[in-house]
Design the sequence.
């Protein structure tokens, strides 16, 4: 099964979970009482009358109710699924969503990074303009590069990052001059 099939399986199971969580809970069957006072042939209960000194209508002390196993299971079903990422091997990661797992090789991780990068670039909320304090990163020293010149004067610079893979940037002629100035500044 290739990465697209595995991601598709995870996506469909996540969709199914979200759809089942959105549906109203099934009505539980009515509780059948065996109490004598609820039978048709049983005499009707007498109305309650307060005695002297007794307070009527005062709420009782609240009792702490412990959830039943069924209620806990229902809450677990309604909780949003979580993504768990583990690294069982140096050259693999395992991703799990709601009990469905996918083991990714280095090639699968690269493909996932590329797909996520393309999706993130199309989202309306932009990446922050500044580097956040404490931001962690893996820098690539002296990356392999390729450059292409476009007819309008723009330059395409593609750099190979050890974690992200090939990362493309397009620079206008003014930005090329600014980049050169920044890199040669003492």
Sequence:
């Amino acid at each position: 099964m290739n990465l697209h099939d595995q991601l598709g399986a995870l996506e469909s199971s996540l969709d199914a979970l979200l759809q089942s969580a959105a549906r109203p809970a099934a009505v539980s069957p009515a509780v059948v009482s065996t109490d004598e006072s609820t039978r048709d042939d049983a005499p009707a209960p007498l109305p309650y009358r307060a005695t002297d000194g007794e307070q009527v209508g005062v709420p009782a002390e609240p009792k702490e109710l412990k959830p039943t196993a069924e209620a806990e299971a229902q809450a677990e079903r309604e909780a949003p699924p979580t993504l768990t990422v583990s690294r069982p091997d140096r050259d693999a990661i395992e991703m799990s969503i709601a009990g469905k797992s996918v083991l990714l090789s280095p090639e699968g991780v690269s493909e996932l990074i590329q797909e996520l990068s393309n999706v993130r670039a199309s989202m309306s909320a932009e990446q922050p303009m500044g580097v956040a304090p404490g931001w962690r990163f893996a820098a690539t020293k002296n990356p392999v590069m390729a450059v292409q010149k476009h007819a309008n004067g723009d330059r395409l610079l593609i750099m190979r990052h050890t974690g992200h893979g090939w990362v493309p940037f397009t620079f206008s002629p003014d930005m090329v001059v600014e980049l050169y100035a920044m890199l040669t500044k003492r």
Remarks:
- Residues 3 and 107 are 9 Å apart (CA to CA).
